[in-house]
């Protein structure tokens, strides 16, 4: 199975500042992911021609399940997180990660009915201050809705804005999550045209076996957004593996 995480910057190129959603679409299509988590997805904003990007992208990728979370309002529209799944979503929740006097942030929790069994995803876009991010991760991982959903294989991912890479040895390790995008020097994803920071990350627990993880570097991804996409190929361990008995 393949998961793609991508801050699409509303479909506006990081350097040319042009709205070209088709570049984002091309970048995603090239990777053919089963699960897609997008941050900074616009709906009804002038800068993106008042497009309903969540609906356009869900229709285009024929999502078996989709979930949009509007976090930041702008005029009659706004932007937020979009989760698309090739398979049905069995259960979902959306929680606020906003701190007072900070930009609104949120997380999406979804249990996906994959071909290998149920998988819990927590998709988010964290804040810009280190203390804010640490509070947000602890709030998410300790939230009763997250705890109710994450009894099996679980992936937490998104644009975590973790410039100093302190979340892996901090709150994620406290909750027994393993970092996927490591070492950070191999997963620099921002800014897209000259990546210096490993901001787009994924963490796994409970029977998620990662085959490969990589940042997608191409002509299209360097132009399409100010972030590069993160791709994770993985499978799920059987819930009750069988073992050959000795004769």
Describe this structure in words.
With 247 residues, the chain is of the alpha+beta class. The protein has one domain (2-236): 4-Layer Sandwich (Deoxyribonuclease I, Chain A). Helix content is 20%, strand content 36%. It is built from 6 helices and 12 strands. The chain has helices at residues 21-31, 53-60, 130-141, 144-149, 168-174, 219-224; strands spanning 2-7, 35-43, 65-74, 77-85, 89-96, 106-114, 117-125, 154-159, 178-179, 200-205, 208-215, 230-236. Strands 3-4-2-1-12-11 form a 6-stranded mixed beta sheet, covered by helices on one side. Strand 6 and strand 7 (117-125) form a beta hairpin. It is globular. The protein starts with a strand and ends in an 11-residue tail after the last strand. The model has no long low-confidence stretch (mean pLDDT 95).
pLDDT averaged over residues: 95
Sheet with the most strands?
6 strands, mixed
What is the 3D shape? globular
Whole-angstrom Rg = 17 Å
CATH architecture: 4-Layer Sandwich
The number of distinct structural domains comes to 1
Order of helices and strands: EHEHEEEEEHHEHEEEHE
Roughly what fraction of the amino acids lie in strands? Answer: 35-45%
The span between the termini is 36 Å
Strand order of the largest sheet: 3-4-2-1-12-11
For this structure, what is the CATH class? Alpha Beta
What's the total helix number? 6
* Number of strand segments: 12
CATH homologous superfamily descriptor:
Endonuclease/exonuclease/phosphatase
């Amino acid at each position: 199975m393949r998961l793609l995480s991508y801050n699409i910057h509303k479909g506006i190129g990081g350097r040319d500042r042009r709205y070209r959603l088709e570049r984002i679409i091309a970048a995603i299509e090239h990777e053919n992911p089963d699960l897609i988590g997008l941050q900074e997805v616009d709906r009804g904003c002038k800068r993106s021609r008042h497009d309903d990007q969540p609906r356009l992208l869900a229709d285009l990728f024929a999502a078996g399940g989709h979930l949009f979370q509007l976090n930041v309002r702008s005029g009659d529209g706004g932007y937020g997180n979009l989760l698309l799944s090739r398979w049905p979503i069995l259960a979902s929740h959306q929680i606020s990660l906003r701190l007072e006097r900070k930009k609104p942030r949120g997380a999406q929790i979804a249990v996906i009915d994959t071909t290998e069994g149920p998988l819990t995803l927590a998709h988010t876009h964290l804040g810009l201050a280190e203390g804010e991010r640490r509070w947000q991760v602890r709030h998410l991982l300790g939230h009763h809705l997250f705890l109710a959903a994450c009894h099996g294989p679980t992936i937490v991912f998104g644009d975590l804005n973790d410039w100093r890479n302190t979340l892996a040895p901090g709150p994620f390790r406290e909750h027994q999550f393993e970092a996927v995008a490591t070492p950070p020097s191999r997963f620099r994803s921002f800014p897209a045209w000259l990546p210096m920071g490993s901001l787009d990350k994924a963490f796994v627990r409970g029977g998620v076996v990662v085959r490969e993880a990589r940042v997608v570097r191409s002509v299209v991804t360097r132009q399409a957004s100010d972030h590069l996409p993160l791709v994770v190929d993985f499978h799920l361990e059987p819930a009750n593996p069988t073992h050959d008995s000795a004769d």
